[in-house]
């Protein structure tokens, strides 16, 4: 432990032998944790998926139910992520530009989905929108089904991924203050002009980051969606639910679909890296 | 006509940021609002810019009520202390912003916008920096971009909030002169806010001294420096230092010294404060006469010597300022005792009709002649 402290202290000068050892072993330890917890499991998923050959893999993911699950997952994400983008922007704006009664409460509410178990979140939705829930009778009378249907899946996903965009934006907006918006106002800009020309460009990287995290979580969400889905194969099964069901029936097919889900997430991170690499210079210029 | 500010009041909870502030600014005038932080000067600026609303009072420009106009339609250019440039836009884009956000019917053609941006950048001597981003500029250059951006909308009133606050001392002095010249060539009505006395006195046509939300004094730099009207203005602008003293009849008593007042035309004046300036504390010509002071510290600043003096009967050490040459003649060391003499004192008093102030030249004690009190001036703001 002492040598670890020494390693951080002697950054400026020429490191001694013991600091070099400490540094190397720390880096090695961090790498080992990553390899055992992330890299190996990820490889294992793809290895298991292709164990019975590429033909089997293709057949597994080209099943109508799997394709329906992919489509449903993308649909849910395509609705939930924009909703949270708008909500996150609005919430972050309100939290950083105004002083009002209940501001602390709003901050706590934004964080609520982080602390509430997703299963509980799903249960709450059933209690409100379910057949015997508070709004159940009214919804049924008007021919609307929320639980065990797309709206329920979207609601559950929106709830779980609510904090990502707002939490990414709030610290940044706080540090930036509102002087530039005021400058734009005195120069004659209207509300939307200020938003699109001044506010949005300044937070776009944090926003993108929040949206990507939100998207990754939206596609991977299991607990809350599990409760409200009803598991109707080909109808209300998202990818994670499909993986769960296949796991009990067809081990290799489950891994084939799971690898698809992993691929979507890796793709999301890949897009983020690509954008950072392409626009890295702009990023440095701004901050 | 210009700007007519009348009885402005702005309250934040218990704290009055502006307390009954009235001020008129002539067309083309360059006015400095000078005060310590928390004196209300920034509140005044924000209300004029339309970023804040007063609780009471009015602002008129050429007879038009400014307060009913939205900030974006006021035609007021505001330059922020920290520039508030848009970091994701180039210098040229920053300057063009105010023209580009106009409704399309009022928006100049792209070529016209480019022409006026080029012209403005030429005027602020930044034409070769058009394609740079703010982060690639120095503080002084950013300040000039902010100025060009504010001027692009052809404002009828220009507001500058601590325009040199975030700059190096050397850059600040150069930019001050440049801005003064720039204002002369533009002739646009300008109000700038600062806590720096030198800046206000050097640049402005008129200076407004503010303290705790109230205007203490309005006048030309010379008037304000020579005749600060209140103890606050004296302390803040002329570095006046309070001395225990009073006026009885036609006699001024300060620290055991007594002067007979000449030209004391007013009855019943009660002195509320007697101030002495650093440059008016001089070493006595003859030893053993004047006040005995102990030299606490000596600092050499740009051709002058600043001495800290402990005088019996005065709580805070007095600061005296001498030229290096004068100092060379006496040459005492820290810890020595020297005799000092006050060349001039400022007396603040009240009479039946209100507050008055006067500056009196004090002859050395051995001269025994009466002290000449300058004409009493009445605090007109009251």
UniProtKB/TrEMBL annotation, chain B:
Superkingdom of the source species: Bacteria
Upper taxonomic lineage: Bacteria, Pseudomonadati, Pseudomonadota, Gammaproteobacteria, Lysobacterales
Ranges where the ABC transporter domain occurs: 3-237
Gene3D superfamilies in UniProt: P-loop containing nucleotide triphosphate hydrolases
MF (Gene Ontology): ATP binding
UniProt cross-references to InterPro entries, sorted A to Z: AAA+_ATPase (IPR003593), ABC_SmlMolc_Importer (IPR050093), ABC_transporter-like_ATP-bd (IPR003439), ABC_transporter-like_CS (IPR017871), P-loop_NTPase (IPR027417), Sulph_transpt1 (IPR005666)
Matching PROSITE patterns: ABC_TRANSPORTER_1, ABC_TRANSPORTER_2
Keywords: ATP-binding, Nucleotide-binding, Sulfate transport, Translocase, Transport
Protein name: Sulfate ABC transporter ATP-binding protein
